[in-house]
TrEMBL record:
Pfam families: PIN. Residues 7-129 form the PIN domain. InterPro entries: PIN-like_dom_sf, PIN_dom. Gene3D superfamilies: 5'-nuclease. This is Type II toxin-antitoxin system VapC family toxin. SUPFAM superfamilies: PIN domain-like (SSF88723). It comes from candidate division WWE3 bacterium.
C-alpha cells in the first residue's frame, strides 16, 4: 500500500483548537498553523466526535448546534475529509489481529483502519496512549512538542 505524507488531525486537537478556554488551545492552534500548506486529513468520525464533545452539556462551554457546525467547517474546508473505503473492514481485521484492542477502543481501531485504507499512517494527537496499541501508525504527540 502506498502511503502519503498526510497527517490525520485527531479529535483531541480539533476540540482543543476550537475551545479558547482550553489550556491546550494555544498549542493546538500553533501546531495547525505550522501545518499550513501541508496535506492533512480528518475523518467523518473525527468530525462527529468533536461535534459530540463541543455540544455536550457537560462541556465547560458547550456550543450550540450551529456554532459547532460553523466551527467544524474550518476542518471540512482545510483538510481532506476521508471516509471508510471498501478496504476498511479488511484493514480493521488486520488492525484488530495486531493489537490488544477490546471494548471502547474499537472506535480507535476503526479510525486506524479508515486512515490506513486511505494510505495515511501519521496521526497528530494530544492522547498518545489512545494510539500506542496500533502497529504501523506514527504518533505525533503534541503533549511533548515545544
Amino acid at each position: 500500500m502506498l502511503t502519503t505524507s498526510e497527517i490525520l488531525i485527531d479529535t483531541s486537537i480539533i476540540v482543543h483548537s476550537l475551545n479558547k478556554d482550553s489550556f491546550r488551545h494555544s498549542k493546538a492552534v500553533t501546531y495547525l498553523s505550522r501545518l499550513a500548506g501541508q496535506p492533512k486529513a480528518v475523518t467523518h468520525q473525527n468530525i462527529m466526535e468533536a461535534y459530540r464533545v463541543l455540544t455536550h452539556p457537560k462541556h465547560p462551554n458547550p456550543m450550540t448546534k450551529q456554532q459547532a457546525l460553523d466551527a467544524l467547517k474550518y476542518y471540512v474546508d482545510n483538510c481532506r475529509v476521508i471516509s471508510p473505503t471498501e478496504d476498511t473492514f479488511k484493514s480493521l481485521n488486520t488492525v484488530m489481529a495486531s493489537s490488544s484492542v477490546v471494548g471502547n477502543k474499537i472506535m480507535n481501531a476503526y479510525l486506524v483502519a479508515t486512515i490506513k485504507a486511505n494510505s495515511i499512517t501519521k496521526i497528530a494527537t494530544f492522547n498518545k496512549r489512545d494510539w500506542e496499541d496500533f502497529v504501523g501508525i506514527e504518533i505525533i504527540d503534541l503533549e511533548t512538542q515545544a
